[in-house]
Amino acid sequence: MSSNGVARAQVTSLLGEAATPPLPMDRVIAWELSLHGSHVVGAGEYPATFDLMGRADLDPTSLVGQVVGLDDAGAALAAMDGPTPAGMTVVRIR
Q1: Which domain of life is it from (predicted)?
Q2: Where is pLDDT greater, at 62 or 42?
Q3: Where are the domains of the chain?
Q4: Contact 34, 7 (CB under 8 A)
Q5: According to the model, what pLDDT value does residue 2 have?
Q6: Bridge partners, 67 (sequence order)
Q7: What pLDDT was estimated at residue 68?
Q8: CB pairs under 8 A, 24+ apart, for 30-35?
Q9: How crowded is residue 16: how many other Cβ atoms within 10 Å of its Cβ?
Q10: HSE-CB for 44 with a 13 A CA cutoff
Q11: Alpha-carbon distance values, 23 to 10, 28, 41, 64 (Å)
């Protein structure tokens, strides 16, 4: 949460030209934003990961706390300012 009360969450993969996006660091500093990144699995590890899921040795559904529709995504993001259920919130686009 920044000092101006704005919280943002973004989950995405950056590929191709988008792999090095311009970032307005002046705004990050002025608004006292925090940047956090996470890289879990590299592209070369996908086959092994899918193999683990296929054998039921890895259950990614156990990481999901709730699934919301796009219409409820804003409220779910706003709710992250307080206690939230354990696990990720997944936004179902369709």
Answers
A1: Bacteria
A2: 62
A3: 16-92
A4: no
A5: 43
A6: 90
A7: 92
A8: 31/2, 31/3, 31/4, 31/6, 32/2, 32/3, 32/4, 33/2, 33/6, 33/8, 34/2
A9: 6
A10: 0
A11: 14, 8, 24, 30
Q: Strand runs (DSSP E) across 35-75, as ranges?
A: 64-69
pLDDT above 70 for 10:
no
pLDDT of residue 13: 65
- Single pTM value for the model: 0.46
**23-27, 59-63, 88-92: least confident range:** 59-63
The length of the chain, given as a count of residues: 94
* Sequence-distant (≥ 6) Cβ neighbours of residue 51 within 8 angstroms: none
CA distances from 39 to 23, 30, 42, 43, 46 (A): 19, 27, 7, 11, 13
Residue identified by tokens 């940047």 is 35
